[in-house]
Amino acid sequence: MTRAILTDIEGTTSSISFVKDVLFPYARRALPGFVAKRGREPAVRKWLDQVATENGGMCDDAMIVEVLQGWIDQDRKHTALKALQGMIWADGYRSVDFTAHIYEDAANALQAWKVEGLPLYVYSSGSVPAQRLFFCHSDAGDLTGLFSGWFDTEAGGKREAASYRHIVDAIGREAGDVLFLSDVVEELDAAREAGLGTVLLDRREDYPEPRVGDATHGHTRVESFADIVLLR
Ligand SMILES: CSCCC(=O)C(=O)COP(=O)(O)O
Ligand SMILES: [Mg+2]
Q: Which transformation does this protein catalyse, written as a reaction (predicted)?
């Protein structure tokens, strides 16, 4: 029985191209100015120092920026990068440089589930502040009120079963009562290993080649939130 929904963002509620073609380039461009302006603030320095330490103790901010830009190019889901990206995107949303993409079917289903009393949670590699900004400034308006909780990689990696066990504990549910929605089969594999229900979002806009047969890893596959059937 589904008593709570846990959803991914990129490729699930929202398009991969918005993240790759709008958010990431914005952060890449703004990074040098951001580090020059705010690099001494403890909340920023903490993450820059972590990157420096993990890269042999480099002490030059310009080198740290280069490492971070390389990580953006590789789509690394590193907690420090994600935290810094979230701070940079705050400026973009504030100055209305962009709004966050959300598929209409996702916005509609999330709103309907909320009305039905189903608690909704987010689990994304984007930092929790970035997730809040994302749904606050979405194409469908401020959707933050729909969600009862937010999880990022501070809960653990999205391809590790332990992360899902931690989240299920944190929200006070049985694993089997939580349905996890994602576009990434390895994330769904980890969630299933932890006992959660799983649905693979396989959107044509994001994945031109349908993932069928073995490619679904046995997860229920849908092309839209409108096709998700909840066990009641
Ligand atoms: C919500 S912040 C923008 C998305 C992001 O940075 C990201 O890495 C998305 O990863 P996801 O786990 O939502 O696929
Ligand atoms: Mg995703």
A: 5-methylsulfanyl-2,3-dioxopentyl phosphate + H2O = 1,2-dihydroxy-5-(methylsulfanyl)pent-1-en-3-one + phosphate
Distance set, CA 79 to CA 51, 139, 156, 185 (Å)? 10, 26, 10, 21
Ligand 1 center from residue 75 Cα (angstroms): 10
- Find the mean pLDDT for residues 25-51: 98
Do both 30 and 113 map to the same domain? no
Distance 59 CA to ligand 1 centre (A): 28
Task: Give the range of the structural domain holding residue 47, as residue numbers without chain letter.
Answer: 19-94
Looking at the structure, do residues 122 and 220 belong to the same domain, yes or no? Answer: yes
Residues with CB under 6 Å of ligand 1 are 8-11, 19, 23, 77, 82, 85, 124-126, 130-131, 134, 158
pLDDT digits (tens, 9 = 90+) for 116-154: 999 999 999 999 999 999 999 999 999 999 999 999 999
Q: Is 179 within the bounds of a domain?
A: yes
The pLDDT assigned to 57 comes to 87
Please check whether residues 38 and 104 belong to one and the same domain: no
- Averaged pLDDT, 73-81: 97
Atom 14 (ligand 1) nearest CA = 10
Q: What is the pTM (predicted TM-score) of this model?
A: 0.96
Task: Express each pLDDT in 97-117 by its tens digit.
Answer: 899 999 999 999 999 999 999
CATH number at residue 189: 3.40.50.1000
